[in-house]
Design brief:
The complex is a heterotrimer of chains A (125), B (266) and C (232). Chain A is 64% helix and 6% strand. Chain A is mostly helical. Chain A has a two-stranded antiparallel ribbon. In chain A, helix 1 crosses helix 3 and helix 2 crosses helix 3. Chain A is elongated, with a radius of gyration of 18 Å. Chain B folds into 2 domains: 130 residues; 132 residues, no CATH class. Chain B is 83% helix and 0% strand. The longest helix of chain B has 38 residues. Chain C has 232 residues and is α/β, with parallel strands linked by helices. Chain C has one domain: P-loop containing nucleotide triphosphate hydrolases (Rossmann fold, 3-Layer(aba) Sandwich). The radius of gyration of chain C is 18 Å and the shape is globular. A 6-stranded mixed sheet of chain C has the order 5-6-7-3-8-9, sandwiched between helices. In chain C, strands 2-1-4 form a 3-stranded antiparallel sheet, with helices on one face. The chains are: A mainly alpha (125), B mainly alpha (266), C alpha/beta (232).
């Protein structure tokens, strides 16, 4: 199943995000071995050169590391993963708050609203 | 690579020729049967149905012989045109083979089928006409021929060899003339076949003009006796061979040059 | 030799038409490149020149450092826009044919792909639909381990599922030694797999760029940029 990718932004940047999400969500747990560049590229339906570029960037940022003959692995550094998770969370929250403020909610109202939403979602399972 | 081209060239054309050859031989055998039973000798005692069958068989046979020669020409023109100048040209000219090889393979295979067609036609006639009497006349004829050969010795053999070379070369030159006409005619936008035909006639006329300028007035000398006539024939044959060779080379060059430089498959 | 294809001041002139006007270009190895332009832009002429089907009027074109000829034909695998297979053959004979002439042809790969697309090797090409013939052609071309693949409109006129299959075949065939040049006007389908693009119009190169540069600098997809550049 090809990954959903937009054509108006560099593909490699979107691949980086996708893979980061897969790591923080636990799909690729710490220390896990990643599929080869070719396999990932085929899965994503992208040019292997592009996937390679994404991997290089992820290596530079420290999220993955490569062992010469064995391939590429997710970092064992759980803190690093947490960092990334938090930065995505922050991005989402910033966006959420910006839009809620735009609707006219106050901070207190937002907090209460959010509590109720969480309760409801837990009840619905 | 040439060998591989030959292989596929033969494969593509054999499926037309072999069935026709088979039919001709079969019909010849059938006719032989009718001949042997005197079916063709019309008398009131012969079975009417047999007569009709025999007539139909003979007519079909003749039709196929004619068809064979028409088909030989048509198939070979078509094959050259389609495989090199039609859509298949995209495949042919992106193969890692030289242009020469393309021309050579088609030339060789065309010649092969022309020769085979003649042999099959001849053989079918042989089948139909062979019987005790003809065998005798034939062996008398063969003895007569070998007497001539003995009498004139090496000269006769040389003459025969040169005659054969001449026949082969003329056939090749003729095929190449057709190919050259096709590639030139292909340049015209519409009516390519008509243009090719015109070019072919044009080439023929040019050849005739050249030959008549060279040979005009040579035949008219006194009739000579056997031996000097043979020598005369030899020099004539050799010069004809040279001319065929030159014409063949010119047509080959034209075909090769056109395919190399002016190729424009649509 | 880092460039699989180079043109220097390449000119191709037909009576009444200047198809290529002094084109200079270099395509590096190991990339998937799109050759994009409207009809009559000179795309097809450039492709035919690459394959040795036309000779330049002036200037030069080199494939892997050599002039187009028998040696370059060994390493270039060409998929033209039209069907060019011998109608009288069946699929098996056609496959044998490719195997006979191209040393880099992988017969097992071809049969695997034929099977995957449900094509029977005994079928005669004459009896097949246009779409199926195009698939056979594509399979034969992609089953070669060539150094340069030149694909002219490989996905035009096929259904979306086949389109995905074709694009996947192109990606998975990729190797650092191979280059793919795709000429198409279905840009949005193809741009996700391109490394770079060449825009050509009226016989001249309008733009060459990596795809990422376009997305980063212009903030739009290649398809959107193309529409802008070639607005009627």
């Amino acid at each position: 199943m090809a990954w959903e990718l937009k054509s108006d932004r560099p593909i490699y940047a979107q691949l980086v995000e996708r893979i980061e999400l897969m790591v923080v969500s636990g799909l690729y747990p710490p220390g896990c071995k990643l599929p080869s560049v070719r396999d990932l590229a085929a899965e994503a339906a992208v040019n292997p050169n592009t996937m390679q570029r994404a991997m290089s960037q992820l290596e530079r940022s420290g999220l993955i590391f490569s062992q010469r003959t064995s391939g590429r692995f997710v970092t064992e550094d759980k803190e690093k993963i947490e960092e990334i998770k938090k930065s995505y969370a922050k991005e989402i929250s910033d966006e959420y708050l910006r839009r809620m403020y735009k609707l006219g909610f106050t901070s207190t109202q937002i907090a209460a609203f959010l509590d109720r939403m969480i309760e409801e979602s837990e009840q619905n399972g | 690579m040439l060998g591989k081209l030959l292989k596929y060239e033969i494969k593509s054309t054999a499926r037309v020729f072999l069935p026709i050859y088979g039919l001709i031989i079969a019909l010849a055998l059938l006719n032989k049967f009718f001949i042997a039973n005197n079916t063709y000798v019309y008398s009131n005692s012969t079975n009417k149905a047999m007569q009709i069958a025999a007539t139909v068989s003979m007519m079909t046979y003749v039709a196929f012989i004619v068809a064979l020669f028409v088909v030989t020409l048509v198939v070979l023109i078509r094959r050259f045109y389609r495989n090199l100048l039609g859509d298949e040209g995209y495949l042919s000219f992106t193969l890692p083979v030289s242009i020469h090889s393309h021309i050579d393979s088609k030339l060789i295979v065309t010649f092969m089928w022309e020769a085979l067609s003649l042999i099959v036609a001849g053989f079918s006639i042989f089948i139909m006409t062979i019987n005790g009497n003809t065998m005798q006349s034939f062996s008398k004829f063969c003895m007569g021929i070998s007497e001539v050969y003995e009498k004139y010795g090496p000269l006769a053999h040389q003459l025969t060899a040169e005659a054969i070379i001449f026949v082969i070369l003329s056939m090749l030159a003729c095929i190449l003339q057709i190919y050259a006409s096709i590639v030139i005619g292909n340049l015209s936008g519409k009516h390519k076949m008509l243009a090719s035909f015109g070019v072919f006639i044009g080439f023929g006329i040019v050849q005739q003009i050249i030959l008549s300028n060279v040979y005009g007035g040579r035949f008219g000398k006194n009739i000579m006796d056997g031996e000097s006539f043979a020598y005369f024939m030899r020099t004539e044959l050799i010069s004809m061979i040279i001319f065929s060779l030159v014409f063949a080379a010119v047509f080959y060059f034209i075909t090769d040059w056109m395919l190399r430089k002016k190729l424009n498959i649509e | 030799m880092d460039n699989i294809m180079e043109c220097r001041n390449l000119v191709k002139y037909y009576p009444g038409c200047l198809a290529l006007n002094s084109v200079s270009l270099a395509v590096p190895k190991g990339q998937i490149v799109g050759l994009l332009g409207p009809n009559g832009s000179g795309k097809t002429t450039l492709i035919k020149l690459m394959n040795g089907l036309l000779t330049p009027t002036s200037g030069e074109i080199l494939v892997n450092g050599m002039k187009p000829g028998v040696e370059t034909k060994r390493i270039v695998s060409y998929l033209p826009e039209r069907t060019y297979l011998n109608d009288w053959m069946d699929v098996k004979t056609m496959t044998d044919f490719f195997g006979d002439f191209y040393k880099d042809f992988r017969k097992d790969k071809a049969y695997e792909m034929l099977q995957r697309l449900g094509i029977n090797p005994k079928d005669r090409l004459k009896t097949m639909s246009k779409g199926t013939k195009e698939k056979v052609q594509l399979i034969l071309v992609m089953s070669r381990e060539a150094e340069l693949y030149v694909l002219d409109e490989p996905i035009g006129g096929v259904d979306p599922a086949t389109r995905d299959y074709i694009l996947n075949t192109i990606i998975s065939n990729y190797s650092e030694n191979a280059t793919v040049i795709i000429s198409t006007h279905l840009i949005s389908d193809v741009e996700k797999i391109l490394d770079g693009v060449i825009f050509i119009n009226k016989g001249s190169i309008v733009l060459t760029s990596t795809v990422d540069d376009i997305r980063e600098n212009e903030g739009k997809s290649v398809d959107a940029l193309f529409r802008e550049v070639f607005k009627c």
